[in-house]
From TrEMBL:
The lineage of its organism: Bacteria, Bacillati, Actinomycetota, Actinomycetes, Kitasatosporales. Gene3D superfamilies: 1.25.40.340. Pfam families: Dak2. SUPFAM superfamilies: DhaL-like. Residues 1-199 form the DhaL domain. This is DAK2 domain-containing protein. SMART domains: Dak2. PANTHER family: TRIOKINASE/FMN CYCLASE, TRIOKINASE_FMN CYCLASE.
Length: 217
């Protein structure tokens, strides 16, 4: 969660620029302010350690509450729902592959229930769905770091796909064809969340730019 906050702070201007092209322009600001508040709440809650009988879901629940109660726009409630499902699944001392799989799958279901979006609608579902699929086929023995790396790569593939789509849900649906070529900001947020499990993301282009097509030999 702290690396997620650092990633969003580092890329806030890029997130804002994306949302200015397909939305209200407030996605980066809302996400950063929510995560800044989340870090303060985590500081107040204190550390969770397995040795002390702590549950991996507690910090996730803390951040989820901040997003549900205090983050504006569409992104706040949706990320709050996703984090709530992750927290509910993380009943043990560590966030293992089983918990990740159950939490992200539950989060996807909750987001779709509220937003009624499907893959292909150019929303955060386009990053979350492939991430869930990657976790579905990831063996438990792989460990959570490997599982999250697989989920992250799948999410960013989904993000890049959104740039080719015309939005059918959310604010981006209002701009029609003008939104083509722009990755969905919410999907980018999911990619940042998952990538931040491994390291802070400092810039978006390496993740959102489509690779150059191979030239015929």
């Amino acid at each position: 969660m702290r690396r997620f906050a650092a990633s969003v702070r580092a890329t806030e201007a890029e997130l804002t620029a994306l949302d200015q092209r397909v939305g209200d322009g407030d996605f980066g600001t809302n996400l950063r302010s929510g995560l800044d508040a989340s870090v303060r709440a985590l500081d107040q809650a204190g550390a969770v350690t397995p040795a002390a009988g702590g549950r991996a879901g507690r910090p996730l629940r803390t951040v989820a509450t901040v997003f549900l109660d205090g983050v504006g726009g569409t992104s706040g409630p949706l990320f709050g729902l996703l984090l709530t499902e992750l927290a509910l699944a993380a009943v043990g001392p560590v966030l293992d592959v089983t918990a990740l799989r159950a939490g992200l799958t539950g989060g996807l279901a909750a987001v779709q229930r509220v937003g009624e979006a499907r893959p292909g609608d150019k929303t955060l579902v386009d990053a979350l769905y492939p991430a869930c699929e990657a976790l579905r086929v990831c063996p438990e023995r792989a460990g959570s770091r490997v599982a999250l790396a697989h989920a992250s790569r799948a999410a960013w593939e989904g993000v890049r796909l959104t740039a080719r789509l015309r939005a059918r849900r959310g604010r981006a649906s209002y701009v029609g064809e003008r939104g083509r070529g722009v990755p969905d900001p919410g999907a980018v947020g999911v990619g940042l969340l998952l990538s931040s499990a491994g390291a802070v993301v400092t810039e978006l282009p390496p993740f959102v730019a489509d690779p150059a097509p191979e030239q015929p030999g």
